Amino acid sequence: MTDQSPLPENPGAGERKYWLDSRANVDKIYWGLVVICAALFLGDALYQKHPEFSFEKTFGFYALFGFGAFVFIVFVAKGLRKILKRGEEFYADPEDGS
Amino acid sequence: MVLGIPPGLFLIVGALLVPLFNGRLRQVYMLCLPLSGLWCLIDGPSGNFYAFTFFTYEIIPVRIDRLSLIFGYIFHIAATISVIYAWHNKNTVEQMAGLAYAGSGIAALFAGDLITLFVYWEGMAVTSVFLIWARRTESAYRAGMRYLIIQVGSGVLLLSGAILMAQQTGSIAFDKMTLGSLATWLILISFGIKCAFPFLHNWLQDAYPEATVTGTVFLSAFTTKCAVYALARGFPGTELLIYVGAIMTVFPIFFAVIENDLRKVLSYSLNNQLGFMVCGIGIGTTLALNGAVAHAFVHIIYKALLFMSMGAVLYRVGTIKASELGGLYKSMPFTAVFCIIGAASISAFPLFSGFIAKSLTLTAVAQGHYTIIWLMLIFASAGVMEHSGIKIPFLSFFGHDSGKRCKEAPLNMLIAMGIAATLCIALGVYSPWLYSLLPYPVEYVPYTTSHVVGQLQLLMFAALAFAVLVRYKIYPQELRAVNIDFDITYRKWLPALYKWMINATRDGWQSILQDLNRGVHRVIAYMFRHHGPEGILARTWPTGSMALWVAVLLATFLLIYYV
After folding, report:
1. Whole-number pLDDT of residue A93
2. Inter-chain contact B405–A53, Cβ cutoff 8 Å?
3. How far is CA B92 from CA B34, B122, B412, in A?
4. What tens digit of pLDDT does each residue of B429-480 get?
5. Which residues, 6 or more positions from B526, have their beta carbon under 8 angstroms from its beta carbon?
6. Which of B93, B173, B456, B476 is deepest in the core (most CB within 10 A)?
7. What angle is formed at CA A63 by the lines to CA A58 and CA A66, rounded to 5 degrees?
């Protein structure tokens, strides 16, 4: 079904270094993202909005909504995991006839 | 309809002839089937074809109009891409099942009556299950069984609804219906099962991740989108669907965040995307219906692309569990790029296909002043960014380096992904192309400053939230675990209830048997006491005592006589 690679699994030793392997470069991406977001947020001042709903006129509505929604989703999901999580073999018991 | 061949038949009959070809010839033959089907469909005339009367009912095997046509195009494109992706696969059963499944899906789109629809509806169920069983694992076999029961059940409901409708109205035509009678409810639930409505959805997350690498790509395209087509045809403007759709967009998000199996994450994501389409159908205006159809069109391509990229990872690495993946961009750079294009499309980034399609639905919802629904869909859009836009590519190709090194995906897989990725970008950049195919005329401009900036803000700030949560180690770790969903009812609770009832009745039955047994023993003991060797009635009495008792009896008789 699958065709797994015969190549050895040893990252590091003698392997080519990638740009993303450096912690400093990951930081660059992070701060780059912060700058882009700041620019987008401030960009709201530069154009005329054509909102369907009045609350869309709030400065940076989509930005705040996107950030808030994401954080909310992650926290709710973390809470849900406590209720929903089971072992990998939960459904595997042949006695259950599942 | 060039050559007068009914759409779908090319693939269904063609699938039966697959074993006659071998090697490279078979591969070319299989590719020719969907391509020639597409060629036959393009620019064909609209109308009903091959209609005949069966008893008093009119059967319309082929009905071509703009709604069925656009779905027909994308189903053929999906079949073509799936065949290329599965080019290396030599499993004859899987090849035949894939083609026949695609053919049944296409034929179902062009069914003009409910009986024809039923035939192909069940055809899809029966053929597609082989794509799951072809994995040849115990869990795939069981998942396939559950899938088959649910899918065939959906067909049975459709047939029941059709029979009731024929009895009530005297017609089995498949046209717009008004929800109300039992017949229409049965038909709606039948569509709802295949469209993965809430609580009817778990077959999707159960079966798709269990299918083969190539099978899941086929599966992702046809069944659910055929149901979307059926809803758009049968129940446009049904208000209930607005709420059902909105709930569908939201609830799978939370499951997708904590799911470890990345193909299962994509199945939840598929469920969430169906919600947008169902919501659009529920709104029912021409803009909303265009939105639902456009969304289905682009969704088939980017969802197939995402399933293909995850399939390639499974094919090369042997696992698709996020907890065991990471850093694969080093080994599979092309697959990683294609996956990111699929992720950007599903997240509806400007210049990608999701953007021009989802905008139609969102605008239609806003124009209908469904404020809460609109907020739910925007919330769900941020959720899509979370699970499909970021989680899928990040956890497999980037993130923590798992140390796994493998070869890049095979060339045929890369070609299939490349075609899908090109379509994702082309459709997104040049919106008139897709808009011209939609069932109703479109007067909509997706690329306005307000819209583009708003969407970019939503997505980039969601990405920022992700970056912050990961940086401060708040983002949940991927764990080797399964999460229970509604399917626990029929995978654990109902079997447990059944066992309990069996045990309870068995106990009851046993106590009845025991009582009976005891009664019989008591009767036997009683008999034994009186008739056994020592029993009073079985004793051999001496002749003397016998004579004495006779004398006593006679004496008593005499006494009574004289008295």
Report:
1. 62
2. no
3. 17, 21, 18
4. 999 999 999 999 998 999 999 999 999 999 999 999 999 999 998 888 888 8
5. none
6. B456
7. 120
- Name the residue among B329, B382, B450 with its Cβ closest to that of A70: B382
What is the domain partition of chain B in residue ranges?
1-226, 236-472, 491-562
Do the beta carbons of residue B254 and residue B386 sit within 8 Å?
A: no
φ and ψ at residue B448, rounded to 5 degrees = -110, 155
CB proximity B313 to A under 8 Å: no
Reduced to 3 states (helix: H, G, I; strand: E, B; else coil), residue B106 is helix
Please check the confidence at residue B384 and state whether its pLDDT lies above 90: yes
Pairing, β B52-54 against β A85-86? unpaired
- How far is B197 from B191, CA to CA, in rounded Å? 9
Q: Output the six-digit token pair for B501.
A: 């009832």
d(CA B225, CA A9): 41
pLDDT digits (tens, 9 = 90+) for B252-265: 999 999 999 999 99
Do B458 and A40 count as a contact with CB atoms less than 8 A apart? Answer: no
Contact flag B386-A74 (C-beta cutoff 8 Å): yes
Instruction: Give how far B513 is from chain A: nearest CA, Å.
Output: 28
For chain A, say whether B505 makes contact (Cβ under 8 Å): no
* Range B146-154 average pLDDT: 96
